[in-house]
Amino acid sequence: MRSAGITLGLTALVAATLTGCSSDDDTADYAAICVDPQTETRVDDSNCKDEREYHGSGAGFFWFYMATRSSAYVPPIGGRYYRGNGTYTVPRERDDRTGGGGSGGSPTIQRGGLSKSGGDIGTVSRGGFGHSSHGRSGG
Fold it and tell me: How far apart are CA 102 and CA 123, in angstroms?
């Protein structure tokens, strides 16, 4: 009976410790908004059907990737975005400069699901609509 109580106590202690360490893991390294590069405006996520990358030419809608641990602002749908806050190419590694985790490695990417009315990129959390890991499309 005594050992069962000790085991239960240790289990609770370990669980509490692990929960306290997981806060950084709840944030995706990058979040993407669907944009029209020709007008430099954000459009509804449903317009981005695949993971095509924009390379300075062509028409259509593309994902624009922003590091979630930066101080970037996500524009509302219809609002202009600042090209200096992200990239049109899929991030292949975590960026230590923005606090995106350890050196190298595959980043987690959330495509879509950000507030349609805009806001701070730092409020992005993993899960929910549009979440994907290791660069797979969510929409």
Answer: 20
Whole-model pTM: value is: 0.66
Residue 72 CA, distance from chain mean position: 12
In tens, the pLDDT along 27-46 reads: 789 999 999 999 999 999 99
8 Å CB contact between 29 and 131: no
| 81 half-sphere exposure, CB direction, 13 A CA radius | 35
Cα(113)–Cα(34) distance, integer angstroms: 10
Structure tokens at 16: 């509490």
Tens digits of residue pLDDT in 99-135? 444 455 788 999 998 999 999 887 775 444 443 433 4
Q: Could you tell me how far CA 21 lies from the centroid of its own chain?
A: 19
CA distance 3 to 71: 50
Which single residue is written with the structure tokens 């590091």? Answer: 67
CA dist 2 and 27 (Å) reads 40
- Longest distance between any two alpha carbons in the chain, whole Å: 72
Q: What is the DSSP letter of 80?
A: B
- 132 strand-pairing partners: 109
